[in-house]
Structures are given as C-alpha cells and as structure tokens.
Design goal:
By secondary structure, the chain is an alpha+beta fold. Among the domains are: 83 residues, DnaJ domain (Helix Hairpins, Orthogonal Bundle); 98 residues, HSP40/DNAj peptide-binding domain (Sandwich), CATH 2.60.260.20. 29% of the residues lie in helices and 24% in strands. The chain contains nine helices and 13 strands. The strands form five sheets. It has a four-stranded mixed β-sheet with strand order 8-9-13-12. Strands 2-7-5 form a three-stranded mixed β-sheet. Strands 1-6 form a two-stranded antiparallel sheet. Strand 10 and strand 11 form a beta hairpin. The longest helix is centred in the first third of the chain and has 15 residues. The N and C termini lie far apart (65 Å).
Length: 293
C-alpha cells in the first residue's frame, strides 16, 4: 500500500535494522529541506516511516498488524500494544536515532532547518479504574515513562473503552513541532453487585417467599448509598423496580439515569414441616397454575 513504511523507505520486510537505518540515512540526505526545497512532505513521510521501523518494538507491532502505518493501534491488538507503549512512550527526536543520523549526514548539525516542524506522535495508555470510580469520578495519579507523575481527572460517568486526551503529554516533535498528546483508554473493572446499561444501573436482589407473598420493605444498595424499596404483595420473581435518578450522571446527559432492581425469590435451604404443610394445604384448596393463565 502507498503509505506502507517499508515501501516509503524502499526496503523489504526482511530488511535488517542496519538496512533500514542505511535507507533512511540516504533518503534523509536527499529529501532534507536544507538540501532540496519543497520536499518537506516527503521528508515527513520518511521520518514517520523510520519512527515505526527504526524502533524494534513498533516494527514488531506493525508486522503483527497491531498498529497501522501511522503508528495508531488497531482495535484487535490495542491492549497488547498499549502495554508496550507504556514503556516506550515519550520517545522523541533522539529515541529513534534521528539525532545521530542527521549529525552524520549534515556534519554535526543535528536536526532539520529552523522553522521545519513535525508534530510528535500521540502515545497511548490504558488505565484501570474501579466501577464506582467510573460512576462517581475520581482523580488518579499516573506515572509517566520518564518517571514524572500527573493527576488525571477521571470524569463522572466515564465508560469502559472511553479515551481521555491529555494535550501535549505525548512524544516530542521534530524541530519546532509541538508534542503529541497522551491518549488514555479507560478500562472499568467489573463490580460484584452493579452492572451498567448506558446510564442505568442494573442490580439483582434476593427476597424471601414471605416477602414476595405478604410484601415488605427491603434495603437496597445504590451507587450513592442504600435506600428502602417497597415490595408489594404478590411480587413475582423477575419483577423489575425502577429507582428514578439513582443511575449514572454523565456530562453529556443533564438528567441522571435510573437504577433497575430485579427481584429473585429465594427459598430456604431447608423446607421445614410447617412450611411444607402450609403449601400442601394451600395447593389442595387452590387451582392456580401460572402456565395456563
């Protein structure tokens, strides 16, 4: 394909690291804007191709199909590549040997002419957060590859797979180019009680047979605390109750979602004689069959 980094550098897929470095050195000398005016765009393509193939980890990721010709992760290989990016993020002008090559080619003057710029690549991370942190929002301290830290604001209502962009926290640019961005993909850990459906919270609770028959008030957990739920007389297993406004508040929706509570009737582990006798008597006097209603 036209933007295949191997094709741009004019090397085969079996080329050695030295073959790739030699090919880039030759093209950099031919296309450098100080040597040939009007070659800026081609020079940028060659530099981008070398940024992928000149880094053994990125080259392997490209060969496996985990990143595309621009260095962007493909969806099916994202998680694996993102872990690699965590270790290699922040790479810039010197990381891929640009400085050494330019110094060799242009007699110690490392880098493009003044005014030339290539924006740094974006770098990608994954950040695991708890379910309730994603619902309520949280501040997470992230350690960057260079050893620095930053406090990342995880907004309330963030969803699994959502990407947060940190402006200027990516790889350094070439020349006067501005740095790229850091793209942080949120991974929300599962919760033992709650599940999410858009902005609604789903919850299943057990109730006893007497609560189902006679009705009751039961305490129900929500993401914002515990509330009382009224169970009417004659509640069947599987009935869903809606708690208005007890769901997720997200920035793109002014009205919070709801919590949907599904009840499940759970019988005692041991059916004693009195319970068995009661239902035996009740069955003899009633001909209720829900399957023939």
């Amino acid at each position: 394909m036209a933007d295949d980094p191997y094709a741009i550098l004019g090397v085969s897929r079996s080329a050695t690291d030295e073959d790739i470095r030699r090919a880039f050195r030759k093209l950099a000398k031919e296309l450098h804007p100080d040597v040939n005016r009007g070659t800026d765009e081609r020079f940028k393509k060659v530099s981008s191709a070398y940024e992928i193939l000149g880094d053994p980890e990125k080259r392997r990721a490209f060969d496996r199909g985990e990143i595309d010709a621009r260095g962007e992760p493909r969806r099916d290989g994202f998680r694996h590549y993102a872990r690699g990016a965590r270790a290699g993020a922040g790479a810039g002008f010197e990381e891929f040997g640009f400085s050494d090559i330019f110094s060799d080619v242009f007699g110690g003057r490392a880098g493009p002419r003044p005014g030339f710029s290539v924006k740094g690549h974006d770098v990608r991370y994954t950040l695991d957060v708890d379910f309730l942190e994603a619902v309520k929002g949280a501040t997470k301290r992230v350690t960057l590859p260079g050893g620095g830290t930053l406090d990342l604001n995880v907004p309330a209502g963030v969803g699994d797979g959502q990407v947060l962009r940190l402006k200027g926290k990516g790889a350094r640019g070439l020349g006067a180019g501005e740095p790229g961005d850091a793209l942080v993909e949120i991974r929300v850990r599962a919760n033992a009680q709650f599940k999410r459906a858009d902005d609604d919270i789903l919850l299943e609770i057990p109730i006893t047979v007497d609560e189902a028959v006679l009705g009751a008030k039961v305490e129900v957990p929500t993401v914002s605390g515990r509330v009382q739920l009224t169970i009417p007389k004659g509640t069947s297993s599987g009935r869903v109750f809606r708690l208005k406004g007890k769901g997720i508040k997200s920035a793109n929706r002014p009205v919070p979602g709801d919590q949907l509570v599904t009840v499940r009737i759970v019988l005692p582990d041991v059916i004693d004689d009195s319970l068995a006798y009661f239902f035996s008597e009740w069955r003899q006097k009633n001909r209720y069959d829900p399957g023939r209603r």
